């Protein structure tokens, strides 16, 4: 009796192993170089190579990466449980004339305080990256849907930034049926309750909001002034690290707001810009401890950002109709450098906000305070 049970168990275990092997068996791609778990992913390898060489300037973590990552968000957040929208469906590209004219997407002037530039006018607009990606798709006869391409370009671009997680990519988004409703993209001068409510209406928790803001560690304001190629939001815009969560916690000057704005915020560092929304989320009781938890914790930042981006990329989509082609995304280089306070700053310059844990202790870079270098144009 026992021996029969044992034989049956061994046979069952063998069947499971065979089934598992069948599920993970790889197919050879037509290029003779790559293999894939699903043959449909094979066509993406040359597209990724072309993106890296032509669109991202040979694999740089530069302006096109910043803007492509921003586009993944502006497209995907166009979803509401109460107002509709297709989410990450490419509608911002297909219905460009409609969506680029939305308040958060069009070129308009907002006011931001910078340490060494005073009150400046920042021209924000999503049209340039939309047009650049559409042109790339047309010139290279890209056959995947616009929704897929936006998310693929974002994931490939992030892979060029040392320290970044390897983002997932699932393929199979259908063409959008209609443009997103207006006023679904949060803006830098929105209040914290407004920002969190907008994200909640798209299915995101406050912790996931903070995780998504890790995108600002490889971001810059690219159109502040014709003489300034790009003003970064932290001192290491070419590296995916935790410096944003350290430097935004440094004391900055808040100027009284007008016309309903909460007030402009001046960064503590020369050459660096601080978004008011980042400043307030780092200090609000709903999010300040989560913000602080990323300071110096690279592993948590990578894990949380990858999970939040995976969720963002699937907003409005049926995952059961999609193919996991994450294997086509290049593996990012490891982090360069250690978390630190900028030169000239000390622990006393940190504005403690979290009530349940002290801010981590970091050594400061040696030497006197220096300016943060601008991000060069591509």
Automatic annotation (TrEMBL):
Residues binding Ca(2+) 2, per UniProt: 217, 234, 236, 241
Entry keyword set: Calcium, Disulfide bond, Glycoprotein, Heme, Hydrogen peroxide, Iron, Metal-binding, Oxidoreductase, Peroxidase, Secreted, Signal
Domain Plant heme peroxidase family profile: from-to ranges: 87-358
Gene Ontology biological process terms in this record: cellular response to oxidative stress; hydrogen peroxide catabolic process; response to reactive oxygen species
Origin: domain of life: Eukaryota
Signal peptide per UniProt: 1-21
UniProt EC number: 1.11.1.-
GO cellular component, one term: extracellular region
Class of this enzyme: oxidoreductase
Annotated heme b binding sites: 216
PROSITE patterns: PEROXIDASE_1, PEROXIDASE_2, PEROXIDASE_4
Family the UniProt entry places it in: Belongs to the peroxidase family. Ligninase subfamily.
Protein name according to UniProt: Peroxidase
Origin species: Tetrapyrgos nigripes
Native organism taxonomy: Eukaryota, Fungi, Dikarya, Basidiomycota, Agaricomycotina
């Amino acid at each position: 009796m026992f021996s029969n049970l044992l034989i049956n168990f061994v046979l069952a275990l063998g069947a499971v192993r065979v089934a598992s092997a069948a599920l993970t068996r790889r197919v050879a791609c037509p290029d003779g170089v790559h293999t894939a778990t699903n043959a449909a992913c094979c066509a993406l390898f040359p597209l990724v190579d072309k993106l890296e060489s032509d669109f991202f300037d040979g694999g740089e973590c530069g302006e096109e990466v910043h803007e492509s990552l921003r586009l993944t968000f502006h497209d995907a957040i166009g979803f509401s449980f109460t107002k509709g929208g297709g989410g990450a469906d490419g509608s911002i590209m297909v219905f460009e004339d409609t969506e680029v004219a939305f308040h958060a997407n069009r070129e308009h002037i907002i006011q931001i305080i910078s340490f060494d530039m005073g009150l400046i006018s920042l021209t924000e607009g999503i049209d340039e990256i939309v047009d650049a990606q559409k042109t790339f798709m047309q010139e290279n006869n890209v056959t995947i849907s616009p929704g897929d391409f936006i998310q693929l370009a974002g994931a490939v671009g992030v892979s060029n930034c040392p320290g970044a997680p390897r983002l997932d990519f699932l393929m199979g988004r259908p063409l959008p049926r209609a443009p997103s409703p207006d006023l679904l993209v949060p803006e830098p001068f929105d209040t914290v309750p407004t920002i969190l409510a907008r994200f909640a209406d798209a299915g995101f928790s406050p912790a996931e909001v903070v995780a998504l803001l890790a995108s600002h560690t490889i971001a810059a304001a690219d159109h502040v002034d014709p003489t300034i190629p790009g003003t970064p939001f932290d001192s290491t815009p070419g590296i995916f690290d935790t410096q944003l969560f350290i430097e935004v916690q440094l004391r900055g000057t808040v100027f009284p707001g007008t016309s309903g704005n909460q007030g402009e915020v001046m960064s503590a560092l020369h050459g660096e810009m601080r978004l008011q929304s980042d400043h307030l989320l780092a200090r609000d009781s709903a999010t300040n401890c989560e913000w602080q938890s990323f300071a110096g914790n690279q592993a948590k930042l990578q894990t949380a950002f990858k999970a939040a981006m995976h969720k963002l990329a699937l907003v409005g989509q049926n995952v059961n109709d999609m193919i996991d082609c994450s294997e086509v995304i290049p593996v990012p280089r490891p982090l360069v450098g250690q978390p630190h306070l900028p030169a000239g700053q000390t622990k006393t310059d940190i504005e403690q906000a979290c009530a349940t844990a002290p801010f981590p202790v970091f050594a400061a870079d040696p030497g006197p305070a220096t300016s943060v270098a601008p991000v060069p144009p591509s």
